[in-house]
Amino acid sequence: MTQIEAKVAYELHKFMDDRKIIMSFLGDLNHKVVTSILISVKRLLSMEEADFLVKKKLYAVLVECLDNITKHNIANTEGQPETNKNPSTLFTLSLEEDHFKILTGNYIFNSNIESLSSGIEELNGLNKEGLQSLYRKKLLESKSEGGGLGMIDISLRSGCKFTYEIRPMSDQMSFFILQAIVNK
Amino acid sequence: MEPIQLEPTTTTPRVIIDPVNNKFEISGESRPENTSKFFTPIVNWFSEYKSVLYYQKNSLGSSKKLSIDFKLDYFNSTSAKFILDIFFQLEKIKSEGYEAEVVWHYDNRDTDMKESGEEFSKLAPGVPVRFVGF
To answer: Three-state SS for A158?
Structure first.
């Protein structure tokens, strides 16, 4: 290894340490990769001193977050633009004093921005009862794809609001960053 | 009807559908890569089981009580739809005059899992659900 590469590794490690990131992934996600990430998370959680239910909630929120970015990775979409040279998805899990933070990032088509943000705003505006009744409604009408159940499930289990940001990358694509919190 | 016996994997639950011994169980973790492919044969099985119950009742005098044990550690949102479909199948069986119930097992510390069972029960009120904490 040259000195420059060692420096990159050291700096990356320090960057993650400073932000309390205990796990991260950048690349092409698929079901197999998600499964191996989840196995590592389970092992990590078994050593973590947190409440049983909190661990269960975190696991469930993680599954839905990872499923979301796997399913909605536009690299897997037919007819994706030629300009899309970097379809990588991003995931980090950090462990703060009193909460777990999950951050995901994936590329989306600009044509989906409006429905995506209005969907998140709708969930953020609902209380527990509102989320439960939306969950029931979606469960009864959902097709085998799930149809938005995952995001409601995250809101219900975490009890926290989503934070998100959409950064335009080109006239066709944007990078969508979503943050979910699970309190300890 | 042919039994279904599936060993658990890291992403799919154990499935026991054994009409000879009258044992029905779905347990473990459920987040299959292809949820529809995994669950559709199971949902269909219960749909077709009505004809067996009909035969038992009319030719043998009485049908066996159908009791299915759910003992899940975790299921994802895509699996939820199919679990509800199984509840609906049992609801139909019950409405046609056969005995049927769901036994919903949950870890006492896992209130979310208990609530999930209660949600399914609300959506399929026609089938009795017994809650068993462990």
So the answer is: helix
ipTM of the complex: 0.90
Q: Which CATH superfamily is domain A3-183 in?
A: Histidine kinase-like ATPase, C-terminal domain (3.30.565.10)
Each residue's pLDDT tens digit, A109-135: 999 899 899 999 999 999 999 999 999
B112/A60 touch (CB, cutoff 8 Å), yes or no: yes
For residue B52, what are its two tokens? 């067996």
B4-133: CATH topology is: Transcription Regulator spoIIAA (3.30.750)
List C-alpha distances in Å: B132 to A178, B14, B129. 37, 19, 10
Interface contact flag, A52 B119, Cβ < 8 Å: no
pTM of the model: 0.89
Take residue A65 and report the two structure tokens written for it. Answer: 């977050």
**What is the side-by-side strand order in the sheet with B66-75?**
B4-6, B14-18, B23-30, B66-75, B100-106, B129-133
